[in-house]
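ZP: hey, is the 2-acetamido-2-deoxy-beta-D-glucopyranose complex queued? I don't see it on the tracker
AM: it wasn't, my bad. submitting now with these inputs:
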Amino acid sequence: MAIGTWFAALVAASSMGVSALPTQSKDVRDVNFAIPSALTSSHLYGAPANNFSCTSSRNPVVMLHGLSASREVDLNLLQYELNNRGYCTFSLTYGAHPIPSWIGGLDDMTKSAKQIAGFIHEVKQKTGATKVDIVGHSEGGVQSIYVPMTQDGIADIVEHIVALGPAVHGATYFGFTDLWYTGGDLTRALVGQLLDVVGCPACEQLAVDGLVTNQFTQAAKIAQPGNKVTVIGSTKDTLVPVEVSTIDEPDVNNVLVQTTCPDDPVGHAGLAWDRSVWRLIVNALEETDEEVYKCEQGLPF
Ligand SMILES: *[C@@H]1O[C@H](CO)[C@@H](O)[C@H](O)[C@H]1NC(C)=O
């Protein structure tokens, strides 16, 4: 990838409390990566358990978190909400380094894609559903499109795909902020230390000229036949601008938050928690335009 891009990302990251280049000079075991209570005590923390006995008239929904987040932090609140609406939802923390296993999405995205494909097969098989839906945020949004494009047999068993702010065309800054926000300065510092010691293959692969970005650029078609793909972007997202997330293919529905909620200042991380966005997600899954939730003011970052 372009060093300039990586450097720009680091400069941006530094301003958020992360300082050093990933040097891999320290050993990961030298750092205490125990899960901090500042994170687990947050009201934004914690996802429902995967319950394969769950039954619903709707497709089961697999939820994919963003970079540096996890199944417990990011789409977890939406997951509870979808459960309340009668959906069965399932999530995993993908792409985590073994230590700590609670910070996901950093690992090689081609490996994560296989992990996610395995999980989608498991959900389909254990629930007995014909089709599975996917909702992903940030890197998880990228994976929601990348997995059906690259993993055998997935496009055929997926119906709806909803991607929130996916950096399909090359990130210049990455969706780090979800976990950092939830755990405050403490988790920000931890993610910084983790990047120092284990690096972040996914960061490079999502960047301009990164492996995954180039695979999308070279693909004859990004959205796969039979998949109903919705990309949700905010005009106020400065981390993954709308030009970076839009998939310009006739069968992809690119939706802007501000079309239904013109005054919503929601930024990249905030897409996960904003009811203006949740409405668009439910609309995509149910193929309606019902005002499921009123517009609200999402987090501006
Ligand atoms: C899992 O779902 C089934 C069916 O809805 C329910 O009876 C059971 O209590 C659930 N298990 C847990 C641990 O929530």
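AM: back. The domain at 5-15+56-286 is CATH 3.40.50.1820 (Rossmann fold).
ZP: great, adding it to the tracker
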